[in-house]
Amino acid sequence: MTLPTSEPLSSSGFGLPPARRRRSRRVILPGEEDERATFLKDLAHTVTPSIDFFIFTLLSALVLGAAILFDSPALYVLAALLAPFMAPFIGLGLATIVGSISFFVQEMGSLLVGSLITFGCGAAFGLLSKVLPISGITQAAYHVTLNWPNFLLLTLGAVLTTYLLLRAPTQRPLVASVAIAYEIYLPVGVAGFGLTGNVLGLFPGGLVVFLVHLGWSALVIAITLAVMGLRPATLLGYGLTTTIVLICIAALITIGGFGTALGTNVALPTPLPSQTPTITQTPTVTMTPTLTLTPLPSSTPTMTLIPTDTPTVTFTPEPTLVQAIVEAPEEYGGAVIRQKPSFDAAVVVSISNGTIVYVFPDTYVANNITWAHVRLADHREGWLVRDLIATATPAGPTLVK
Description:
The chain is of the alpha+beta class.
């Protein structure tokens, strides 16, 4: 007696040829249309953020703010471990596959809210740094620079998270998602800290790194989905993919241009020539004809009224100032000018490598560390570790060791 033709075969693959059974085990995505629709529905449900996503984002952002304030590598790692499953990143890629605008807007909104929470907590701790002195910016400076190890970690995290999620749509690969959180949340939190804490280089550098990593992770996730067999089925899906790329490029160009005008020192050489004419103008050559044209009173030739004594008192430090350039190690990316020659003193400003400073002749030595009294082009003064600067012009032998 034969089975009815309408009876389905066993899903276990019993009775299939060996080659077909092995091929069915290797296939991750279901082949039937109904099963594929159920698979995508389960996957969409898994990557839809819940209230836990925002709660754990807030908790992670608070720990991140403390990590920046105390410059603690362990707290940076803890902040990434406390971060939630980065569902919106996979959701953006899945929205291009499904071709749903509402699902795309939902995932993009969740991503923006989570990033704003992290940015806001970083900004709050930046305000707190004005009351509590920061320990340093060594770790923070690392997260606002683009480098290959960060790109490699982000790529591995995006690929593994997407692959493991496709293998088990109802389970969230939290361990692999930590790599995405480390490369996405940490730069945006550091950017918020730099904005309110007046630490140059952290903002908008952190936003630039955030956008670059965001665009790169979206691209890697889309490529991984395509390799695994999930490709946009409609023109709308391809349009959403193009929209993600264009938004990241436009935001990167905008913030990158703003950062060049705000955080870099390209415009620093312009005030330097203006300082030189002012020093040469101080002898006031125009005053000498007045002395020769009006020789009548005896009081005019008196040396007390000649302005040569006054500029010499006012500008006596100027001829002795030495023009130097900041050359800190690459891992630091810059140096910190403090109000007093001590690591416990308040931070005046953080400057990047290549910044030109003017060095006073007075120095201060404490704990075998020599501090130099420096002035910026905007006339702000402070103390800087002398080993982090190098003489830019041969006019000053003051810094020669």
